[in-house]
Amino acid sequence: FLMKRKTHVKINRKEVMLAKLRKSCSCTPKKLKNFVMDFLPVLRWLPKYHCKEYIWGDVMSGLVIGIILVPQAIAYSLLAGLKPIYSLYTSFFANIIYFLMGTSRHVSVGIFSLISLMVGQVVDRELLLAGFDLNDDVPPALADSSLQNDSQTNTTAFNLTIAGMNAECGKECYAIGIATALTFVAGVYQVLMGIFRLGFVSMYLSESVLDGFATGASLTILTAQVKYLIGIKIPRSQGHGMLVITWINIFRNISQANLCDVITSAICIAVLVTAKELGDRYKHKLKFPLPTELVVIVVATLVSHYGKLNEVYASSVSGAIPTGFIPPKVPHFNLMLRVAVDALPLAIVSFVFTVSLSEMCAKKYAYTIRANQEMFAVGFCNIIPSFFHSFATSAALAKTLVKTSTGCQTQVSGVISAMVVLLVLLFLAPLFYSLQKCVLACIIIVSLRGALRKFRDVPARYHVNKVDTLVWVITMSASALISTEIGLLVGIVFSMLCIIVRTQRPRTALLGQIQDTSFYEDDLEYENLSSVPKVKIFRFEAPLYYANRNYFLKSLYRLTDLDPNLEAARRKKYEKKEKQRLKKGDHTTANGLGIGETTLQLVPKQIDFQALVVDCSSISFLDTTGVNTLKEILKDYKDLNISVLLACCNPSVIDSLKRGGYFGKDFANMQEMLFYSIHNAVQFAKDQK
């Protein structure tokens, strides 16, 4: 039987588009209000804020995140190749803007190690191209957009004409100029992606790609911090293969290690790791995480200051961190052109991490987020702070988990965290002058525990899915051994190739009947299946399109043990020989059979079926090549008096077959060619003479 299809009313797409355009272009007070409320979600939820219920959890989590944020911000400035003050600016502005524009209640947006690394790589490259020395770690005194000549602090001003900057600008000024230009362009990309609703781009970053990218980048981050751990001066490697080159330089200069930095690093790592492990073990008993990083930084700063570690042992320190805010400045347009390509992967990675964490929190706490608004929020978290000497931001997993575990209810906690950072910016920043860089490196390395632990998950990942494990390994290796941006691109391309290969060479099977039922399964996978006499049932577990057409035919011919083209050629050859014998007057064949009996011998004995049922339940779509392929096997098998029956086709496949003329004119033979279950097709084949 054939089920009657519903008749769908044809939609005039032009009219629909014009109606949507008119609706979107119209401006009414109500619509304007909704636009503002959607653009600034804080206006919706803040008036409904339950102060008594929420305030304690928000204040507590905000203070804890702020206390964690300050040492991390100072530490991650090493990754970005910038001064600590800029990391504090970034953390402050990102929390305020996300409070206004974000739709997630729990995500912690701010400085993030992977984003800092990507910014730092671009900054280092552009500094080298501008002729600056990357290996001078002595901190210059901070001024505004230009720096004065100072031989002791190596702030010799360069009259830069590069990238159109005709102003005197020192190394630090040029570095933050590159970072802000990169951040601005990344933010513009994210806003444009939000306007054009290109959030689907994140779908191409699978979990395996993201995990591999994070792990590979973590290895790069760890490698970049080793020189601070042991206090050696080595060239800062740039370009492809940075990880290998850096380790070679480390081992070449290991004899120059600063004993004071080595001892300090060993003590700090031991304390941090022990505290983290104890915190993980007793996290259910602790109301909030131990502020270990802050304690380590305070103690290390006091020891360094009163022990004069910089003067006596030449231990590298953070240097002067000024208080207050630098006047805002528009990012240089010409610098934007230099970093436009680098900003694209930065924008995508920043958005993907933010949205994935937002969705995770929303699912856990039963509320919804708007992915498109998240794109705008992250975009403006980059665009606006770039005018205030800040660099790119993203949601951070570790801080988000801490935020949720300490009772966070809304983004009011982000404002509290911003106030803690502001307190440091206005009053406490100079107190970190004597803080050793090796302590900051220890904080960064210990924060990578989660990403580096992914190596322990490889056996379990391999057991679950070998292809995903291969994608993880390829992405991780490329991110670590080539570069982070190339690694991300390699991971995306390789994962897509894996999908294509899977559809090019999918599983195929001949099905047998489950005894005393109307169900059929793979004969090689299950026992006690009975074959159907005179019927072959073939399953193809993928869409049928141009790339897997040949594999479909080869698999069909191999499993049915019959190539209709070869068989047809064999028959023609046999008939030709018989005609030649008839002309010679010989009325018997080589088998001793009469001419009337020869037709019974044309089909070899291995052809033991008279009907072929194609199970189309796994064929999600057909292209033109796929339709032509089915038409081809229909014709070829028909020449051998074998009928081809299709079963379990979905509506889109049926429509493709109709449009391709598979069922003939007016679909007259459709009832004899198409069936809604395999069993119906088998019963029909058995009833055929």
Rg over alpha carbons: 34 Å
Main sheet summary = 7 strands, mixed
Helix content: 55-70%
Number of domains: 2
Report the average pLDDT across residues.
85
Helix tally equals 28
Into which percentage range does the β-strand content fall? 5-15%
Between the first and last Cα atoms, what is the distance in angstroms?
20 Å
Shape: elongated
Q: Which structural class best describes the helix and strand composition?
A: mainly alpha
Structure summary, number of beta strands? 11
Poorly predicted residue ranges: 137-167, 595-605
Overview of this structure, please?
It catalyses: oxalate(out) + 2 chloride(in) = oxalate(in) + 2 chloride(out); sulfate(out) + 2 chloride(in) = sulfate(in) + 2 chloride(out); bromide(in) + chloride(out) = bromide(out) + chloride(in); nitrate(in) + chloride(out) = nitrate(out) + chloride(in). It is found in: Apical cell membrane. The strands form three sheets. Strands 5, 6, 7, 8, 9, 10 and 11 form a seven-stranded mixed β-sheet that branches. A two-stranded antiparallel sheet has the order 1-4. The protein has a two-stranded antiparallel ribbon with strand order 2-3. The relative contact order is 0.12. It contains 28 helices and eleven strands. It is 59% helix and 6% strand. Helix 4 packs across helix 11 and helix 5 packs antiparallel against helix 16. It has 689 residues and is mainly alpha-helical. It folds into two domains: 406 residues, no CATH class; 149 residues, Transcription Regulator spoIIAA (2-Layer Sandwich). The radius of gyration is 34 Å and the shape is elongated.
